């Protein structure tokens, strides 16, 4: 039998977050004494395991990288817009009128599905789509509000130094000198878990993950967290200064307010249109949840004991979960045994469907390393005999091997 050759994991060139913990539970006696064991809640919806609470989503994904966002590539970081604007001391997302109309059509479809007549639908949508009058925070008199709103309008008209992608315009001295920014070394991980992190001696203050998820790369048409490029020092300084600002006031609870970019006709010249931002209520909110695979959900429930899964508002026991998951996914038992094994060995197994395998193995997690191995799981007896879950021919095996080699994985 040929001897297996295991290669070291391939580290990502740029990492923009620190490793917190391998599991969402205390992993040492000291942590157990200081931290109370928290039991998270999930629900089975349409044969999928979903976590709704934002704090629990952050804890489950940030500590062990369990699950993925239903609207994101991996980390649940969906936002209605990547462009935000300050309107009267309130920071709100900016969307186009076409996108707002799309949300309006979705809301109309939901109301039609409920059997409402057209008059009721129009009255309901008009209530949500009428422009919202903005009032300045802390302004007591109408004159103060007028002056404040006029100042905000002047700021929008004159333009801000902040771009939608999070970059900053260079100063006059930088433009004249033409010299690039002095790059500061940054540590890419926690020294407690990553021995390679000590080559980055300086560690900046922790950046707001929500703000960082909206910053676009100045070189590529992608978010900075996806493309892996390094943040400019000016952007980091600006984000740190914004992090110390007081929290912005909110409107009516339960509503999501957006700034719709509309074109206003010039009274002097009808052919010329001036863009303006109008505050409206978002008629159709899109909320991102964390979706757990069946193996991840059962591991959190059975192995760690930190997840309670509900179906029709009733918690399910471990035995009922095992039976239900085996019905939903016939190969659940086999794949879970492999998942449990690799998780216990310190790997982070993720779904390998896009590469034609059952699992992909990551060291620490997807933000830190590329997947090292792809795994195909089969059930066999003591003599290594058994009915294969996916029978391979020489052609399909060669195709799988070619895909695995091209993406730098090892089967």
Name the features.
four-stranded mixed sheet, 411 residues, globular, alpha+beta, six-stranded mixed sheet, 13 helices, 13 strands
Describe this structure in words.
With 411 residues, the chain is of the alpha+beta class. It contains 13 helices and 13 strands. The strands form 3 sheets. A 6-stranded mixed sheet has the order 3-8-2-1-9-10, with helices on one face. A 4-stranded mixed sheet has the order 4-5-6-7. Helix 10 packs across helix 12. The chain starts with 28 loop residues before the first helix and ends in a 5-residue tail after the last helix.
Offer a concise description of the structure:
Helices cover 32% and strands 16% of the residues.
Compressed to H and E, one letter per element, the order equals HEEHEEEHHHHHHHEEEHEEHHEEEH
Number of strands: 13
What would the principal axes of the Cα set say about the shape? globular
Task: Quote the beta fraction.
Answer: 15-25%
The value of Rg in angstroms is: 26 Å
- Low-confidence runs (pLDDT<50, min 5 residues)? 136-205, 245-254
Q: Tell me about the biggest sheet? A: 6 strands, mixed
């Amino acid at each position: 039998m040929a001897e297996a050759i295991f290669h070291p994991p391939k580290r990502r060139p740029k990492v923009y977050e620190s490793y917190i913990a391998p599991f969402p539970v205390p992993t040492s006696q000291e942590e157990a004494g200081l931290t109370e064991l928290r039991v998270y809640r999930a629900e089975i919806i349409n044969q999928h395991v979903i976590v709704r609470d934002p704090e629990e989503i952050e804890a489950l994904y940030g500590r062990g990288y369990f699950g993925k966002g239903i609207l994101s590539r991996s980390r649940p970081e969906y936002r209605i817009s990547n462009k935000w604007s300050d309107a009267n001391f309130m920071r709100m997302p900016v969307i186009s009128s076409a996108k707002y109309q799309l949300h309006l059509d979705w809301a109309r479809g939901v109301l039609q599905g409920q059997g409402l007549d057209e008059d009721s639908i129009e009255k309901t949508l008009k209530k949500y789509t009428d422009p919202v009058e903005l009032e300045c925070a802390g302004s007591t008199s109408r004159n103060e509000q007028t002056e404040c709103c006029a100042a905000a309008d002047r700021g929008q008209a004159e333009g801000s130094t902040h771009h939608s992608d999070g970059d900053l315009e260079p100063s006059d001295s930088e433009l004249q000198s033409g010299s690039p920014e002095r790059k500061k070394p940054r540590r890419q991980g926690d020294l407690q878990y990553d021995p390679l992190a000590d080559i980055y001696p300086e560690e900046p203050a922790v950046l707001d993950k929500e703000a960082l998820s909206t910053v676009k790369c100045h070189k590529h048409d992608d978010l900075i967290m996806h493309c892996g490029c390094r943040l400019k020092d000016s952007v980091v300084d600006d984000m740190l200064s914004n992090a110390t600002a007081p929290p912005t006031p909110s409107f009516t609870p339960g509503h999501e307010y957006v700034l719709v970019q509309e074109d206003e006709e010039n009274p002097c010249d009808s052919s010329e249109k001036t863009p303006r931002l109008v505050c409206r209520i978002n008629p159709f909110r899109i909320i991102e949840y964390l979706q757990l695979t069946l193996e991840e959900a059962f591991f959190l429930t059975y192995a760690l004991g930190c997840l309670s899964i509900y179906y029709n508002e009733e918690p399910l026991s471990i035995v009922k979960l095992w039976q239900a998951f085996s019905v939903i996914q016939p190969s659940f038992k086999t794949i879970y045994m492999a998942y449990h094994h690799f998780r216990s060995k310190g790997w982070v197994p993720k779904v390998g469907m896009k590469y034609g395998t059952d699992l992909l193995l990551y060291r620490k997690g997807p933000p830190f390393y590329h997947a090292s191995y792809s795994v195909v799981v089969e059930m066999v007896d003591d003599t290594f005999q058994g009915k294969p879950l996916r029978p391979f021919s020489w052609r399909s095996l060669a195709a799988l091997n070619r895909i695995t080699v091209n993406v730098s994985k090892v089967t």
